[in-house]
UniProtKB/TrEMBL annotation:
Domain of life: Eukaryota
Any one GO MF annotation of this record: heme binding
GO cellular component terms, A-Z: membrane
Protein's cellular compartments: Membrane
Binding site for heme: C47
Name of the protein: OLC1v1026237C1
Pfam family, one: p450
Length: 112
């Protein structure tokens, strides 16, 4: 069995500028070689849900931002340190406060 260390490739400074910074704009309008970016695996056993996931993640994230105001629970910056595990947990779980924006009750059914 061949195991590819995608984690390492995704952080390789030879492959990416400023490799460990969160810069989603680095992907705007560019076609990235599949051998550099493989969040869904690669080849015949790659993730068959990739198309669905990419659409749903965008809609879900957009809905959370559009429908809620978000804030930290305290004055400290959110700690983005990675924890240990296969699913890339955060070292410190995220705690945040959210409040539905004013328009939300008008578009969601009122459950009595
Ligand atoms: C952000 C969401 C997702 C990520 C990051 C992800 C990532 C992956 C990765 C890395 C693999 C292993 C590929 C390999 O072995 O090379 C995989 C396999 C798989 N994924 Fe996903 N996946 C996601 C969502 C989904 C969804 C929504 C579905 C189904 C609706 C799905 C179904 C599968 C299946 C069935 C496999 C096994 C494919 C096989 O072994 O032939 N995944 N996924």
């Amino acid at each position: 069995m061949l195991l590819v260390n995608a984690w390492e490739i995704h952080r390789d400074p030879k492959v990416w500028d400023d490799a460990t910074s969160f810069k989603p704009e680095r992907f705007e309008g560019v076609k990235v070689e599949p051998s550099k970016l493989m969040p869904f695996g690669i080849g015949r056993r790659s993730c068959p849900g990739a198309g669905l996931a990419q659409r749903v993640v965008g809609v879900a994230l957009g809905s959370l931002i559009q429908c809620f105001e978000w804030e930290r629970v305290g004055p400290e910056e959110v700690d983005l340190t990675e924890g240990v595990g296969l699913t890339m947990p955060k070292a410190v779980p995220l705690e945040a406060r959210c409040k539905a924006r004013d328009f939300v009750p008008n578009v969601l059914p009122n459950e009595a």
